[in-house]
């Protein structure tokens, strides 16, 4: 079995297994650097857990305020609708991000398939 030829940042060799026709794994293949950078950049900008925590705190506070009478139930109902809308938006953002990441991975696989086809690689 062939292993990736790259050396990791800590100086140890990468131990990932690659196809015999490949020199590097996906994480070290220079052709995939741009896609990896885009994915890392998106991940760095991602804040779903903080957003969810904020919504959770907002809903808890709203519950307490309605329960103690600080906010009228009708106003509380409207605020709950707004909170639900925010939660749906977060879910849509998550799905969009997931779809974009899958599209990037698919594009990378298609690129690999094209390169292998051009190199004369065949199944079997």
Task: Give short descriptive properties of this protein.
single chain; 124 residues; mainly alpha; 2 domains; 3 helices; 2 strands; 65% helix; elongated
Describe the structure.
- By secondary structure, the protein is mainly α.
- It folds into two domains: 1-44, no CATH class; 46-118.
- It is built from three helices and two strands, in the order E-E-H-H-H.
- It has helices at 33-45, 48-68, 73-118, and strands at residues 2-3, 17-18.
- The chain has a two-stranded antiparallel ribbon.
- It is elongated, with a radius of gyration of 24 Å.
- The two termini are 17 Å apart.
- The model has no long low-confidence stretch (mean pLDDT 86).
Strand element count: 2
User: How large is the radius of gyration?
Assistant: 24 Å
- First CA to last CA: what distance? 17 Å
Beta fraction: under 5%
User: Main beta sheet, described?
Assistant: 2 strands, antiparallel
**What are the secondary-structure elements, in order, as H or E?**
EEHHH
Given helix and strand content, the structural type is mainly alpha
* Strands ordered across the widest β-sheet: 1-2
- Whole-number tally of structural domains: 2
Query: Helical residue percent?
Result: 55-70%
Task: Give a topology summary.
Elements: E1 2-3, E2 17-18, H1 33-45, H2 48-68, H3 73-118
Antiparallel strand pairs: 1-2
Concise overview:
This protein has 124 residues and is mainly α.
